[in-house]
Design goal:
The chain has 279 residues and is mainly α. It has eleven helices and no strands. Helix 1 crosses helix 11. The radius of gyration is 25 Å and the shape is globular.
Length: 279
């Protein structure tokens, strides 16, 4: 006669292979999704080393390996200016969105005020709304104000759609903090600003950095909203879109590769810094 313990052991042995099979299938599925997502990036990196056809335009026929496009990265003045403008817009928008988004996150996470629920709703709508809707609404605003479209309207638009992302990231960081640490600072005689500068700011700094990096990434590659409010100003995404119609310069793939690598490096450095802060 089998005991209850033996029956349980047999059941565990029968379930264990199934669990291993499920874990393996889930892992394989995850890697397939990751490969599907980053496959276009690998294609871009590969063709940044491809020789161009006659006329200096890149084709998707492999013509030979070359590193010329990295050596002559800034030979096209229009492309270089478009990249510089995108970096300028992304930098200013990141600073502006961070300066406005962090106080908003503090207010939503730490205080009760009239209209707080409506503010949460507006943030959610701004994140969930399609980019074409946001771009069209901003265009209508600038037209109604008779504001000429150009670099300034691009920066204003980018700050507007970056603020909710910064606020959400920093707010999540704030809600995970222990308020007793701040209360201890008050008990030791620190004023509101001293407690914020000495205690709160260092604790939420990883969230601020993460929100700023997300803001920069969203701004530098935005095309839809920028196309509505740019006027005659040309950013890197707008240049790439326009060049598709007449032929893509090989430097576009090289610049795109460098931007991708730079983003990876920044993400790794941020992760290492956060790990060091929590160690």
């Amino acid at each position: 006669m089998t005991t209850a313990v033996e029956t349980a052991e047999k059941g565990a042995l029968a379930v264990k292979p199934r669990r291993r099979w499920g874990v393996a299938a889930l892992g394989a599925y995850t890697w397939l999704v990751i490969l599907y997502t980053i496959a276009p990036i690998f294609v871009m990196i590969a063709y940044s080393f491809n020789q161009a056809a006659a006329g200096g335009k890149l084709t998707f026929a492999w013509l030979g390996f070359t590193t010329d496009w990295y050596v002559h990265l800034f030979d096209l003045a229009a492309l270089t200016q478009a990249l510089e403008r995108s970096l300028e817009v992304a930098s200013v928008a990141t600073v502006g969105a961070t300066l406005l988004g962090v106080p908003l996150a503090l207010a939503l996470a730490r205080h009760r005020f009239w209209g707080k629920g409506f503010t949460d709703l507006v943030i959610f709508i701004d994140i969930a709304a399609p980019s074409i809707v946001v771009g069209a609404s901003l265009l209508s605003l600038f037209i109604s104000l008779d504001w000429p479209r150009g670099l300034m309207t691009i920066i204003i638009a980018h700050i507007a759609f970056d603020i909710p992302f910064v606020a959400v990231v920093v707010r999540a960081r704030l809600e995970g903090l222990d308020r007793s640490i701040e209360k201890a600072a008050y008990d030791l005689g620190a004023g509101p600003w001293t407690a914020f500068y000495r205690v709160t700011l260092p604790l939420i700094w990883p969230g601020i950095v993460a929100g700023a990096l997300l803001s920069f990434a969203l701004s530098i590659d935005d095309f839809i909203i920028t196309s509505f409010v740019a006027g005659q100003t040309l950013t890197f995404p707008l240049f790439v879109y326009g060049s598709v119609k007449v032929g893509i310069p090989p430097q576009v793939f090289a610049m795109g590769t460098l931007i991708f690598v730079g983003g990876i490096v920044l993400a790794i450095l941020n992760a290492l810094w956060q790990r060091r802060q929590t160690a």
